[in-house]
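Class, carefully examine what follows:
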Amino acid sequence: VDRDVPKSFPSTPTEVVEPPPEEGRQLVTGRVYLAVKHNKPFALEGPASLAPERNPEPNRFVRAYRFQSRAQTIEYPALVGRASADPAWTEDVREYYLRTPEDSRYPALAEEIVATLPEDVRDDPFAQALAIKLWLDEHITYSTAERHAGAADPTADFLFGSRIGYCVHIAHAAVMLWRSRGIAARVGTGYHGSPDDLRGSALILRSGDAHAWPELYLA
């Protein structure tokens, strides 16, 4: 699973096994210079290919590589009406992206949220996912102070308790609610930069920019 996520740094030009589709996306290119060691390569949005890059300052950077990515440009209304599964998936892969805890509160809450949708889109995967996302925006409080680390299910402790947490809790809550509606989803991790991190044409990322977010699959 997750075959669209590169697992290792490129020693030669390398195509991603299952890159994002070209439809509704534009090509973005860039170079990454790592000042510290990192477990896996990353790129802007969905990488399509990676290649080694000459290290311009070996005393400063531990690794350099370049990438080609496909950044989403399709408008949200065009995502309505698309199925949330790939017919090519095996049953094991499908089950993996739909796995949820055995906790009836997840489907109950998701059903309550989805019931507020207009009837003509109530069964649509993207409309359901968007409704759940907007509900979370309205009902949660972002804070890194509450970690929910001692709970058997930190996501449930967050979602059905204080509803105070940070990106990891919010992303898992969205994914579990989506999956309970039969929407294939996963938690993505990486970095979230901001305009304040720009230095000319370079984007400076630090460990404090680490971020998690929910992703759903649409045909």
